[in-house]
Design a protein that fits this description.
alpha+beta, Beta-Lactamase, 2 domains, 6-stranded antiparallel sheet, 12 helices, about 15% strand, elongated
């Protein structure tokens, strides 16, 4: 969903802070009612019409990515400001290189210290990178190879996951959110070969994935309730919540259970067993 009125307000605000004397060919003599650049000047410097700038500022037009880049250059925007405008106008932010698949030191430290709840770390393609000790005890240690088998979308759409969602609307929201996340990541990393191969394989294996991809699903994956089939404890009903980690564009998936429930007791028992296994002999 576009937020063009907010975009227009920022455009007006940010052109007011630009000093006309920064541009040699602009006429700066005489009195000026505008503290920064006039609309006509922004239009000239950005190679668009003044009427178009007016419609942008009024929230009545959505700029192309090319126009957005020209405006960012004219207004001398910081990278974070440019990215914010991309978000408001519904444009993806293409990033150089491929998807980050390494856990940084800050994230690794956080993962080690969150030892009271099961946690998993995923990259931007929803490929598992690592569990903390309790997460591994709950979900099982992943295979050391076969990265695709550790991808949440691949396991879900090829029916190889060990975590089944509750039936109904929630499951439909979950699968749509996975597809939306993958599309957004692909738009930011169009040259990532591993991601391209994953998407090609998903389209080949899952008509449902292709259906959702073509539908333009846009819901982001934020939470899910499901049942994990544990080999010792049996079914464990959990709520999983997504936390975004800026370091390396990673995602933490934190598993919890309803306080006081039988499932919370199972997680507590699992924590005890996991701690006992880590104690020195």
């Amino acid at each position: 969903m576009y937020e063009l009125r907010r975009f227009g307000g920022l455009l007006r605000q940010w052109r007011d802070r630009v000093t006309p004397t920064d541009f040699d060919h602009l006429v700066t003599g005489g009195s000026r009612r505008t503290p920064g650049l006039r609309r006509e000047e922004v239009a000239e410097l950005s190679d668009v019409s003044a009427d178009y700038i007016k419609r942008l500022e009024q929230g009545r037009a959505r700029p192309s990515l090319q126009v957005l880049k020209s405006l960012a250059s004219t207004l001398n925007l910081a990278q974070a400001e440019y990215e914010h405008l991309c978000i408001l106008t519904g444009h993806s932010i293409t990033q150089p290189g491929g998807v980050n698949r390494r856990i940084g030191p800050a994230t690794g430290q956080l993962l080690d210290r969150l030892d009271g709840v099961p946690v998993a770390v995923f990259d931007a393609t929803w490929t598992l990178l690592r569990y903390n000790s309790l997460g591994a005890a709950l979900c099982g240690h992943p295979a050391p190879s076969a990265r695709r088998e550790r991808n949440m979308a691949w396991r879900y759409f090829t029916s190889t996951t060990n975590c089944a969602a509750e039936p109904g609307r929630q499951d439909r929201d979950f699968e749509a959110s996975l597809v939306a996340d993958l599309r957004e990541t692909a738009s930011r990393h169009p040259s990532d070969d591993e991601l391209t191969a994953l998407l090609t394989a998903l389209h080949a294996m899952s008509p449902r994935f292709t259906e959702l991809w073509r539908s333009g699903a846009s819901r982001r994956f934020e939470r899910r309730s499901g049942v994990i089939d544990h080999p010792d404890l049996g079914p464990v009903r959990t709520d999983s919540t997504v936390l975004t980690v800026p370091e390396g564009d990673l995602k933490l998936l934190v598993f919890t259970a309803e306080p006081g429930s039988a499932d919370a007791c199972k997680l507590a028992k699992l924590q005890t067993l996991s701690s006992e296994k880590r104690l020195p002999a």
